[in-house]
Amino acid sequence: MRRFLVLALLLAAVWQIGSAGWIHAKAGLGQFLLERAWQETLGGKGDVEPWPGAVSHPVARLRMPRLAVDHLVLEGLDTPVMAWGPGMAVGEGGHHVLAAHRDTHFSFLRAVELGDRFELVEADGRRRWWRVEAIRVVDSRTTGIDLDGVGQAMTLITCYPFDAPVAGGPERLVVRLRPLAPAEEARS
């Protein structure tokens, strides 16, 4: 009986480690496979699926030089999309909302500071620089994000806290950015 218990615990541990490793492997592999599709998209081929049956396609590239961040961004904010990279939706007024998992693509948000600059390159080749103007933690049960009500802004969202033992709690880290003026962009 004792050997069975030890074997069962060992198998459970291997399963848990394998599951955690798969999440990170999927996140890394996704960015690698998305790169080809992104290059074709920039080359004018439209929305290019990164692999047959993909749940989404790249629509932007998010860079943050201070922390050496460079992520391809996918269309949509659904959970299956975020397994492969940050997801994005854009409102009518130009509000860009990006969401990603706290333990993969948006793990760097724990080090973001007010005033940090981000570059967003969209599928049509447009480049725009953004500056962090607010960082706050909200309760997702009482606070929503209005995709159409903010105008020109970018909001980055991930689960919070970063070191919570169980993912998917109600708290979210919300990082709000505003576009830089052309003169400020030139200095970026």
* Strand tally: 8
The number of helices is 3
CATH topology of the largest domain: Sortase, Chain: A
- How are the strands ordered across the major sheet? 1-2-3-4-7-8-6-5
**Major pleated sheet:** 8 strands, mixed, barrel
Our measurement of the CA-to-CA distance between the termini, rounded to an integer number of angstroms, reads: 65 Å
Radius of gyration: 19 Å
CATH domain class name of the largest domain: Mainly Beta
Q: What is the helical fraction, as a range of percent?
A: 25-40%
Number of spatially distinct domains: 2
Give the SSE order as H and E letters: HEEHEEEEEEH
Global mean pLDDT: 87
- Low-confidence stretches are none
InterPro entries: Sortase, Sortase_D_1, Sortase_dom-sf
GO molecular function: hydrolase activity
Keywords: Hydrolase
Organism: Wenzhouxiangella sediminis
Could you give the topology of this structure?
Blueprint (H helix, E strand, L loop, with lengths): L1 H44 L12 E7 L4 E7 L3 H4 L4 E4 L4 E5 L17 E6 L4 E13 L13 E7 L11 E9 L2 H5 L2
Parallel strand pairs: 2-3, 4-7
Antiparallel strand pairs: 1-2, 1-5, 3-4, 5-6, 6-8, 7-8
Protein name: Sortase
Pfam family, one: Sortase
Organism: Wenzhouxiangella sediminis
Describe the protein's architecture and organization.
The structure is a single chain. This protein has three helices and eight strands; from the N terminus they run αββαββββββα. With about 190 residues, it is α+β, with helices and mostly antiparallel strands. It has helices spanning about 1-45, 80, 180-185; strands at about 60-65, 70-75, 85-90, 95-100, 115-120, 125-140, 155-160, 170-180. The protein has two domains: about 1-50; about 55-185, Sortase, Chain: A (Beta Barrel), CATH 2.40.260.10. It is about 30% helix and about 30% strand. α2 links the parallel β2 (about 70-75) and β3. InterPro entries: Sortase (IPR005754), Sortase_D_1 (IPR041999), Sortase_dom-sf (IPR023365).
